[in-house]
Amino acid sequence: MKLLTSCYKLFTWKLSYNSFTGQIFSQPAKLESLMVLIADNNQFTGIGDGLLNSTGLVYFDLSNNLLQGVIPSWFGGFHFMYFSVSVLKGTIPSSLFNIPFKLLDLSRNKFSGSLPSNFSGRHMGLLYLHDNEFRGPVPSTLLENVMLLDLRNNKLSGTIPHFVSNRYILYLLLSGNTLTGHIPTSLCDLKSIKVLDLYNNKLNGSIPSCLNNVSFGRSLDYEIDPNHGDSFGIAGGDNDLEAYSMSFVSRFLDLPLEFYLDYSGYLDFSVEFTSKRRYDSYTGESFDFIFGLDFSDNELSGEIPRELGDLQKMRALNLSYNSLSGLVPESFSNLTDIESIDLSSNVLNGSIPHNLTKLDYLVIFNVSHNNLSGSIPSQGKFLTLDETNYIGNPFLCGSPVNRSCDDNNTTSEKETNYRRKDGGVAIDMEMFYWSLGASYSVILVTFIVFLCFDSSWRRAWFRLVDAFINCFKCV
């Protein structure tokens, strides 16, 4: 490495997948022209001050190393910074958030403390801070200028802030924290959301019905400011992350023609989301196929809004492990692209709408552990679903649960016939007769047992019987 530290005309340097150790650039380096430094998957333990003169550096990747300590105070000027999967700790300097990053990835470290409330980073495209130990509330300013905000698996608390309207955010991931309170209706103003993940918090209240205002992949009728997309480095206001990565070459790597390479492949965009009972990582072209909403494992109550059926492009919907009540909305039949619906572990009642058989791409439909009744649809994709999707619903019938719907209807008719006309509680007469007979049998056996013992009660009983017999003889 020392041989190249004086190459002042070096534009890009890749050191990935080696076994380099110690501090990277612990000595001053004359790399004034360096624009791209990729040193991921090594064993570097620290960051020296040797890059202080590399003012043109815009892409810096030190992910998957053994970095320790805190982030150097001299950091600045980078547009793309990957420092994930290390053991960096301490608080993040607030000055770091005032740098106009296009991508900042500090995920899977040991950062702690609170997130800076004076965040004013203009046009920060992608912000990955997941799997750290951040505490405190989520600053409302954090969402002003981002396309992706990933705060999953921290120790954040408080309520979800009323984020300012941001028509350009695509992914909002807040799962695995201890956020409380209601889901704010201000989330309905985030028109371009593709994935909204609030899984595993302590949110309560009802699900906002206005979520049908969010696109989740649909084309909505609102005007996009073409200059805003350009400020993110996206030509023509295109929100797509793939276009974002391609624009990186033209805007930030203005290399001589003989050195021109396609560096967009180095841009690692990913979104992790639970769909079809799997926790998948979506990258590259798969971004175009993930539209999902996950409110599972909270304390939500009330009915499921029928307006969710307006989200035709939704591919994954998870509302499991809450206290949602009421019916399964028939409007779900409008979710024409849906692949996974998980409503398990709630208190839903009524029947499963048979018009859901129109869902041609449905792979998962889990309604286990509810209070559903009636017949299970037996057409379309429902033919491929086994009984694990329905367990914990004793009044469901159909072939998946090996329960005849004829028997189920007969039982229901009996219960209806025994129900009092004045609206009282139903009485099962068969059980009543069995109980009455058992009571008489117990009394009779007890009486016979008493007669088997020589006691004053036994002698008195026999004298009474003799007197009764003599009385009849006299007559």
TrEMBL record:
Entries under Gene3D superfamilies matching the protein: Ribonuclease Inhibitor (3.80.10.10)
Compartment(s) where it occurs, according to its Swiss-Prot or TrEMBL record: Cell membrane
GO CC annotations, alphabetized: plasma membrane
Superkingdom of origin: Eukaryota
Keywords: Cell membrane, Glycoprotein, Leucine-rich repeat, Membrane, Receptor, Repeat, Transmembrane, Transmembrane helix
Record bears the keyword Chaperone: no
Membrane-spanning ranges: 431-453
Major location category of this protein: membrane
Family to which the UniProt record says this protein belongs: Belongs to the RLP family.
Name of the protein: Leucine-rich repeat-containing N-terminal plant-type domain-containing protein
Source lineage: Eukaryota, Viridiplantae, Streptophyta, Embryophyta, Tracheophyta
